[in-house]
TrEMBL record:
GO MF entry, a single one: pyridoxal phosphate binding
SUPFAM superfamilies according to UniProt: PLP-dependent transferases (SSF53383)
Protein name: Aminotransferase
Keywords: Aminotransferase, Transferase
Family according to the record: Belongs to the class-I pyridoxal-phosphate-dependent aminotransferase family.
InterPro entries (alphabetical): Aminotransferase_I/II_large (IPR004839), LL-DAP_aminotransferase (IPR050881), NHTrfase_class1_PyrdxlP-BS (IPR004838), PyrdxlP-dep_Trfase (IPR015424), PyrdxlP-dep_Trfase_major (IPR015421), PyrdxlP-dep_Trfase_small (IPR015422)
């Protein structure tokens, strides 16, 4: 018997990896499953993006190994995207590193900066991968509370009371996943000041800025942020390219170089055609975002009706790709609640508990289901 590494003892299979097997099995049995659990866009990239990858197939360089830092024109497009949308100036040669999806960036950053025993500040609720990666590299998760009473923003008085002497990294993500809280530049200023005071690498996970959000923001907009900040971003949600696996990490040049040391030992460059498609996406004009948000607005209205039909109270201030809703009084377990809906009504939504203990009493709906399917879900009740 070959034994597994001890690090696997403290992590579990990603919730959606295991739960979706159950959902697929129900569908295979003929159950009319409506999947509102996972944020995988069902819409397509623009035609210009599809054309770009098709045309790239004829390029003489298309099938060779690519640079670990990506094509220069891809990094330039990423820099232009940040300049045009956030008024953030970045050096495409030293302050930007393309990624095969921003999720891999969480691992690369953790490997680059965390030693065994280092502490990591992780939002509760928040993206589960922050915890699993922290555990995989032998660091220690330290959770800080986000609550509806505080608009899902950190309580800085509570943060200052923590033992921060071993904290190396702090994860944030605004617009927030799973709640959709917007954040603000005032909040970002406080976070940057906190990171500087305690010499913490502050990382903003920022893939939802352009979904149902009339005021996209970047942590890098804050003066002096580059001293202590990295930001992750992704084309998955913004441009319906989740399966393409294109993301980026941006910010402090020395930190980017450290991440590159890890990344260059993990892959052999991003496929040429995907890079060309990403360039086309990043050069999209405002009409792209407007057209996507018209669709998502209609879906959100219907999804809120569904949530309220279940007796839930919707967090109306939320933006991004999800609807966050508080369960009715008296419901003890979010997971039992969603399992009942799954098996009785064949509708899958995500329990808030998978994002942390502060997610108990909440559920999350993804806006990745066509309007007629959301209406069908409503009709089932």
């Amino acid at each position: 018997m070959i034994t597994t590494a001890k690090r696997l003892d403290i992590i579990e299979e990603y919730y959606f990896s295991s739960k979706l097997r159950e959902v697929r099995q129900l569908a295979a049995e003929g159950k009319p499953i409506i999947n509102m659990g996972i944020g995988s866009p069902d819409l397509s990239p623009s035609q210009s993006v599809v054309d770009a990858i098709q045309e790239a197939m004829q390029d003489v360089n298309a099938h060779q190994y690519q640079s670990y830092q990506g094509l220069p024109e891809l990094r330039k497009s990423m820099a232009d995207f940040y300049q045009n949308n956030f008024n953030v100036e970045l050096n495409p040669n030293t302050e930007i590193l393309p990624l095969m999806g921003s999720k891999e960036g969480i691992m690369h950053i953790s490997l680059a900066f965390l030693n065994e025993g280092d502490h990591v500040l992780i939002p509760n609720p928040g993206y589960p991968t922050y915890t699993s990666v922290t555990n995989l590299v032998g660091a220690v998760p330290v959770y800080y509370d986000l609550t509806e009473a505080n608009n899902w923003e950190p309580d800085f008085e509570a943060l200052e009371k923590l033992d921060l002497s071993k904290v190396k990294i702090m994860w944030i993500g605004y617009p927030h996943m799973p709640t959709g809280a917007r954040g603000s530049l005032a909040l970002f200023e406080k976070l940057v000041a906190f990171a500087k005071k305690h010499q913490i690498l502050l990382i903003n996970d920022n893939p939802y800025s352009f979904v149902l959000n009339d005021n996209p923001m970047s942590l890098l907009q804050i003066s002096g942020a580059k001293e202590v900040v990295l930001e992750l971003n992704s084309l998955s949600k913004t441009f319906n390219m989740a399966g393409w696996r294109v993301g980026m990490v941006l910010g402090n040049a020395a930190c980017i170089d450290a991440v590159l040391k890890v990344k260059s030992n993990m892959d052999s460059g991003m496929f040429f055609g995907i890079q060309k498609g990403a360039i086309a996406a990043l050069n999209s004009d405002k009409s792209w975002f407007e057209s996507m948000n018209e669709i998502y607005k209609k879906r959100r209205v219907l999804t809120e009706v569904l949530a309220e039909k279940l007796g839930c109270k919707v967090y109306k201030e939320g933006v991004g790709l999800f609807v966050w809703a508080k369960l009715p009084e008296g419901i003890i377990s979010a997971e039992a609640f969603i399992d009942q809906i799954l098996h009785e009504k064949h509708i899958f939504v995500a329990p808030g508990t998978i994002f942390g203990s502060n997610g108990e009493g909440y559920i999350r709906f993804a806006l990745c289901v066509k309007e007629e399917k959301v209406q069908e879900a409503i009709d089932r009740f």
